[in-house]
Amino acid sequence: MHLLAAAATHSAWLPAAWLAPCMLGAIAVSRPEPGAGGAAEIGALLPPLLDSAYGTALHLTRNATDAEDLVQEAALLACRGFGTFQPGTNFKAWFFRILTNCFYSTYRKKKRGGTQLELDDTPELYLYCQTAAIGLHGQTEDPARLLMERLDAEQIGAAVDALPEEYRVVATLYFLQDFSYQEIAEVLDVPVGTVRSRLHRGRRMLQKALWVIAEERGIIRDLTAADPPPEA
Amino acid sequence: MHDHYRLTCEEVFARLDDFLDRELSEEETRRVEEHLAACAACASEHRFETGVLDGVRAKLTRIAVPTSLRAAILRQIAGGTA
Ligand SMILES: [Zn+2]
């Protein structure tokens, strides 16, 4: 406990809700010997994850300042709690669990940013049907690629950011980290079935968000105007 | 190879998301692949969904962490937990 108490007095960053029983227990039981060994190892494991951690944090918080704070907090907690990491297990999943717990306990309360779209009732194959309806399937062998090539990184990022939080978190871990269902389940501490259903439903919502953004930005108009379907 | 139960289009569609994520068993994966090889409609849906997922994955922000933050974290690591 004294490690955590010391951490809490160090600054106000330690989110109380982060102290999941498993982490607390592990910290209390197996506090590492402070020494160069632990620092050297986290020094090798953590830096390669920082870019993708920041990208993930941007989509979770939807705000650059909050994303920086979130990554810094998660890194600090990872350093302090590194003794609870079991060598040979999945460090990336371990670290992203800390990061998402930080997010849930602090930043989600801010509830800001993101376009509010009505995505709840998105049917399956949404983009497939929409692109078929505007005649794109007759123009190309690969209508998905044609559409996706017109959308830039900012627009695709905006579509992810439009997802409701529970879907956005899963989709971000899936697309940016290439985690498996099982790994996402471990990161979020939810059943694999929950990950699967949120991810599948989230992807349908994402398709609608992509379509709405493509329409808003004139991409659909350009696609249909540039290459009108051949008519007799 | 040829005498086992074949999946219908509906059954393939129900497995499409898991198939795209390589979350099916080997046996199920093989059955879906077999159907996609023989069914143009399902193959077209599969190709479309793959194209969307690949497009999102390829373009989703890969922004480097700000240099100052990276430096601060590296200092933190070097300084240990004290
Ligand atoms: Zn079929």
Write structural notes for this entry:
The complex is a heterodimer of chains A (232) and B (82). Chain A is elongated. Chain A has 232 residues and is mostly helical. Chain A is 67% helix and 0% strand. The longest helix of chain A has 25 residues, at 192-216. Chain A folds into two domains: 5-109, Orthogonal Bundle (Rna Polymerase Sigma Factor, Chain: A), CATH 1.10.1740; 126-225, Winged helix-like DNA-binding domain superfamily/Winged helix DNA-binding domain (Arc Repressor Mutant, subunit A). Chain B has helices spanning 9-20, 26-38, 40-59, 67-78. With 82 residues, chain B is mainly α. The longest helix of chain B has 20 residues, at 40-59. Chain B has four helices and no strands. Chain B has one domain. The interface between A and B is large, with 58 and 38 residues. Zinc ion is lined by residues 9, 12, 35, 39, 41-42 of chain B.
Which keywords apply here?
heterodimer, A: about 230 residues, mainly alpha, Rna Polymerase Sigma Factor, Chain: A, Arc Repressor Mutant, subunit A, 2 domains, about 0% strand, B: about 80 residues, 4 helices, binds zinc ion
* Unreliable runs of chain A: 1-36
- Rg measurement of chain A, Å: 21 Å
Question: Kindly state the mean pLDDT of chain A as a whole number?
Answer: 82
Kindly state the number of beta strands of chain B: 0
How is the biggest beta sheet of chain B arranged?
none
Q: Largest sheet of chain A, if any?
A: none
Shape of chain A: elongated
